């Protein structure tokens, strides 16, 4: 006659193995390595698949918060929103970037693109000059703060464009 505990040992071992396998299969997937996430996000950005790129850059920021690529990911999120014509989200993301990276060498680009967000919104808004006025103030700010940058020269052109638009608006009203 067999001992009852001996006949249940293989069954118990099989049960423990099944529970262990089930637990492993239900665990969260391992996060992608930082270089892999960055490469995938950059690929989608360059491929103009901006919503997917934004999600991947955000995932990079969430999973690797102290990454050396955080600044680039934050900037690319804002730029992707701008290129996708989502100016409200772009403005929020660019303002967040300015707050998080106040000494970044990318600030002239950020300030210029904030001005362009306002200017592009003015084209969509029609006759309301407030977006053009915000763009003008932004470009003037950029020209003062970063007078030696390429973006200051571009801002000078945009300042004259804003002033011309505002003058045309005044003529239409008059």
Structure in words:
By secondary structure, this protein is an all-alpha fold. It has eight helices and no strands. α3 packs antiparallel against α4, α6 packs antiparallel against α7 and α6 packs parallel to α8.
Topology as H/E string? HHHHHHHH
Give the total of beta strands.
Answer: 0
The residue fraction in helices comes out at over 70%
Distance between the termini: 110 Å
Overall 3D shape: elongated
What is the radius of gyration? 27 Å
- Indicate the mean pLDDT: 87
Low-confidence stretches: none
Strand content: under 5%
- Class derived from helix and strand content: mainly alpha
What labels describe this entry?
mainly alpha; elongated; 174 residues
Summarize this entry quickly.
With 174 residues, the protein is mainly α.
Write the layout of secondary structure elements.
Elements (H helix, E strand, L loop, with lengths): L3 H23 L7 H13 L3 H14 L6 H14 L3 H14 L6 H19 L4 H16 L4 H24 L1
